[in-house]
Amino acid sequence: MKRTYLSQKIAFSFLFLATLLLIIPVGLIVVIIVEKGISAITWQFLTDIPRQGMRAGGIFPAIVGTVYLVVGAIIFALPIGLLAAVYLSEYARDNLLSRMIRLAIVNLAGVPSVVYGLFGLALFVIYFRLGTSILSGSLTLGIMILPIIITTSREALESVPYSFREVSRSLGASKWQTIRHIVLPNALPGILTGTILGLGRAAGETAPILFTVAAFYLPQLPKSLFDQAMALPYHLYVISTQVPNVDEKIRYGTALVLLTLVLCMNLVAIIIRYRFRKKKSW
After folding, report:
1. Domain ranges within the chain, ordered by starting residue
2. What's the pLDDT tens digit per position in 135-162?
3. CATH T-level topology, domain 56-279
4. C-alpha dihedral over 120, 125, 126, 127, to 10 degrees?
5. Distance from the CA of 92 to the CA of which of 35, 56, 82, 138 falls in 20 to 30 A?
6. pTM exceeds cut of 0.70
């Protein structure tokens, strides 16, 4: 008994140490970005266009472009990802083919983003002749986050107790009615959480938009889906590596806005998950 207690204490100590090793570097990064970038956050910085070769002015076109890309990605990825998750969870038979598909989806989630960028360049920009545009960038980002949405949605659907399905079917409901009215509402917290986390990744990626949509500098907002757009990740890359003599606070201020955008998405995911889980009675 004493040895078991000692082993448990050692295990908890290692887990606590691992947690600290994860939290401390992330906390230091956030502190440094906030400390060096908070002085740049003004109303003009958030609502003005870049000026003087992006050495002054604001980042409003980059913020708007990022929002356009994220919204376009979710419009494309969420319906397809959710339908694919429903099929794999509720309709597909457990055989070699379905297991290979699941494994492929999991592996696709780990593919480097630059590969998705090259894929989007070849397929949407060149083959379908959409050009470097918001539409090409949104479709590329949508494909990139599809594996995340499919995986998290499938896990959320499979977490719903099978007894719910049995009771619904025994009352005369069809399989689709059971999925629509019983399974999906109970799996909604996990689906929304995975979707928003996927959007957080899409908002912070540089490589896919580098090949498909991002512009070095645009003095005005895009007017259609076939226009190029500025985006926060690429704008941050440009002012940090391509434009000399940029004030340090502008670089860190841009990073702070991007970090805040991603953190807000994650916060929304946590709040939604918490509220829906409170309503569950199982």
Report:
1. 56-279
2. 999 999 999 999 999 999 999 999 888 8
3. MetI-like fold (1.10.3720)
4. 70
5. 138
6. yes
